[in-house]
Amino acid sequence: MAMASCPAGAPRFSFTCRPKIHPRVHFVFIPSYSSSSSSPSVKAISYSNARRRNILAARAHVVSEEKSTSQDRMLVFVPPHPLIKHWVSFLRNVQTHCPIFRNAMAELGRLLLYEASRDWLPIVNGEIQSPMGVASVEFIDPREPMVVVPILRAGLALAEHASSILPATKTYHLGLSRDEETLQPSIYLNKLPDKFPEGSRVFVVDPMLATGGTIVAALNLLKERGIDNNQIRVISAVAAPPALQKLSENFPGLHVYTGIIDPTVDDKGFIIPGLGDVGDRSYGT
After folding, report:
1. Where are the alpha helices (DSSP H) in 171-277?
2. Disulfide engineering: 31 pairs with which of 40, 76, 83, 269, CB 3.0-4.6 Å?
């Protein structure tokens, strides 16, 4: 990398004294003179047809390989956003009081829903009249059904801002409780429809993926109602290996978005270090 020489006394970051950086990739142009004009026009150098076909074939192979991997395996995403780490830290703190805890959970849910919906929402293109002219625009297609399923009661806090992130969503509540001795889930409230509309995109919100019993039971209820694994995004604050292992074995192609992955679960089914009882800490009861 060549450096420009700076005159003595020049400010270090002045516009007249900047290091000259040669970019790693150059766009190379050659002049092409047309017969009708003496001035040169600029034409980009292009690859030969054979080389272009090879490049496109290689890219197509990579894309198809990625799609195959996505369909065959469960994918877990831990977005590296500093605000996600910030709110997880608030939730960790045993001294975080109930209203602040619930607000932190809601903010974490907002960020995770944003990440989970990236490149997944249906888009409709069109044109609108702005104050200054016609503009090409993209909107979320309201004809494509989007569904939020919070698992009660702790899931309510994590899904609190779903309606502000996802336009035109429907919310179906699902209540599951876990036996403290057997750690097996039981259903006490089921507001799911008998059949979901075709093409539905479903966000299942469960703050703690610990042993995996609750989330597996919830996803099985969705599958019974016509939802495939690739139509589901699971949103959680904290996940642990036992739950992720169960999900991976039972739901290939599933996508899980979580704030953090903790190392273990204790014999009572709580994630360590985890957040404690999220329902109790969210609602104070």
Report:
1. 213-224, 241-250
2. 40
Burial pattern 240-265, b for ≥16 Cβ within 10 A else e, equals bbbbbebbbebbebbbbbbbbbbeeb
CATH code, 230: 3.40.50.2020
pLDDT band at 260 (very low <50, low <70, confident <90, very high): very high
Q: How far apart are CA 267 and CA 242, in angstroms?
A: 12
Residue 208 located in a structural domain: yes
Tell if the pTM clears 0.90, that is, is over it: no
- Does a structural domain hold residue 226? yes
Residue 69 belongs to a domain = no
Consecutive H or E run containing 133:
strand 133-140
What lies within 8 Å, CB to CB, of 142 at 6+ separation is: 167, 168
> For residue 251, is it within any domain?
yes
End-to-end CA distance of the chain: 63
What is the domain range of residue 234?
A: 74-283
CA 79 vs. chain centroid, Å, equals: 7
- What's the one-letter identity of residue 63? V
CA torsion angle for 262, 266, 270, 276 (degrees, to 10)?
A: -80
75-121 pLDDT, tens digit per residue, is 999 999 999 999 999 999 999 999 999 999 999 999 999 999 988 88
Round to whole Å and give the CA distance between 79 and 239: 13
Cα radius of gyration (the chain): 26
